[in-house]
Amino acid sequence: MASVSDFNSPHNITWCPGCGDFGILVALKGAFAKLGLSPHNVVVVSGIGCGGKIPHFIRTYGFEGIHGRALPAATGIHLANHELTVVAIGGDGDGCGIGLGHFMHAMRRNLDITYIIQDNEIYGLTVGQASPTTKKGVITKSTPHGTPEDPINPPLVALAAGATFVARGFSGDIPHLTDLIAKGIAHRGVAFIDVFQPCVTWRKDLPYELYQKKIYKLEEVGHDPSDWQAAVKRAIETERWPIGIFYQVQKPIYTDQIPFIKDKPLVKHDISNIDISKYLEEFM
Ligand code: SF4
CATH number for the domain including 262? Predict the structure, then answer.
């Protein structure tokens, strides 16, 4: 059985000291170890952004895609071999900006994958522009008079799109986040986890202390995760910020409904006797 250190990458981590991405990385490795997963059975897929570098910093199979496209790549990998554990991960700009359509479709399909948004409410890699989750009125480099738009609420999007596991964690509470990610991966169906991830460089107005002051845990207030309407009410709270599992139900997963791959992953089918020359001719 693999330990946390088995997931350590030899590459130097380039995030700013204190970045919330460190907590997510530690929690992700901890969740893999907690579930007894081996590095060769896990694929971490990202888009572009500070957090998009995470496949380099963890020793599993990995794929760093293009901006907003972590989920299409993760979907393809999962459909090719659904025996692998596939985790897609990316920032709020990546998933709620250019990748928003992919986010919603992945949720409604109930693919058995996990999707994590590193939600720091800013475009960090491109040095501090307002992102889709930046709250109205916040001053950033691209919004010197305050952001004029209302933000996207990622857990609410996931709930509206039909996700069967919706949660939120905080990168400053690694044991809680580790447990949440492990539960998301263990969930049979799509698991979405929004993670509060302080950007210590471009969002100094959103420090760890503010999150700690505002956050409370759903499991400590008797929240019922099988109640969709209760989950929506928690997701739209603004005065206090709930973390934990908002919603979890079981529904048929995508691959169980595709006869050809239901019992055997695509990569394990024998294709040696299939003649594809007539299809190739179309492109010649
Ligand atoms: Fe992290 Fe922000 Fe630095 Fe990017 S810019 S590495 S999000 S602290």
Answer: 3.40.50.970
